[in-house]
Amino acid sequence: MRGDDGRQLSHATLEEIRIRAVKRVEAGELPEDVIRTLGFSRARIYEWLAAWREGGIEALRAKPVPGRPTKLSSEAIRFVYRTVTTKNPMQMKFEFALWTRDMVRELIREHFNVRLSEVSAGRLLRKLGLSPQRPLARAYQRDPELVESWMRDEYPAIVRQAKRCGAQIFFVDESTVRSDYHSGTTWAPIGQTPVVETTGARFKVNLISAISPRGQLRFMCFEGSFRIAAYVDFVRRLVLNSDAPVFLIADGHPVHRCKAIRQLAAASDGRLCLFFLPAYSPDLNPDELVWGYLKHHKIGKLAIKGPGHLKQRVRAVLRSLQRIPALVRSMFQHPSVRYAA
Questions:
Q1: Contact 304/310 with Cβ under 8 angstroms?
Q2: Could you read off the pLDDT of 236-279 as tens digits, one per residue?
Q3: Beta partners for 222?
Q4: Distance CA 251, CA 245 (A)
Q5: Which option is the CATH number for 144-184+198-340: 2.40.30.270, 3.90.1720.10, 3.30.420.10, 1.25.40.180?
Q6: Of 81, 78, 52, 61, which Cα lies nearest the Cα of 14?
Q7: pTM for the whole structure
Q8: Widest CA span of the chain, in angstroms?
Q9: Alpha-carbon span 278 to 206, nearest angstrom
């Protein structure tokens, strides 16, 4: 194909060429001279002039290109959108719980006897304003009514009680940082995956932390599994180092509800009060965001060399976070925990 072939030009460009060519002829230039400078065939200029004389400038404008008619009706497209956005694939008798392009293809084939390729199914989903996203895992045992009651009634009552007592509210949680967790990306030539050398050994650091809406952060490293002794030790330190009563909010882990911690609260003379989040609702705990910051934004991007190096870096990151209360407070602005801000 020639480099100056008009078929390579866009419809908008061809429209502009037609209009300008006709205007040049009307201004007194010879049609053959005009079309020769544009690189089109001699007959083309006379076709444009005839169209212009019959229908004016509008006759020279580009016509909409209808393209191939859609295989799905508007009702079928609405069904696909409603199904993908409001239903779990398992409700539609599929094996998996995540919508894929192949599942959408099968859904359309079963309900409308229309066959689409995976590419066409993906194009349809994007046209509907959908995009592939990593879902949040949420336990099916979770009670939405309890969650709503916690955010609407129970937590505001805790805040009012804390104000009357002059107490500080802390959310507590525990986690593990592993040496083989990696996150982030780096720059490299296209098609050449970069290699970052790190240790092949596996080790971890166990942690407990507590944060407050005021931007306070307390943490402790411990050895071995999460047991009652470690938790009681952390809570005792938290209360001793606080200049006000502590209202401690935790999830329903058995260690959080153990007899030893209840006895510690009972013997604290009001310095420690215990509260518990609704079952299967870790997303309501702002302290979870500390672990996300530590793992994904910091430790996951390091080349860890050994157990000592991992522990040193974990402590350094958390101590740095302690010195930035505004960053801790900003974690309470996440949509799932904004109720606690």
A1: yes
A2: 999 999 999 999 999 999 999 999 999 999 999 999 999 999 99
A3: 206
A4: 20
A5: 3.30.420.10
A6: 61
A7: 0.70
A8: 104
A9: 24
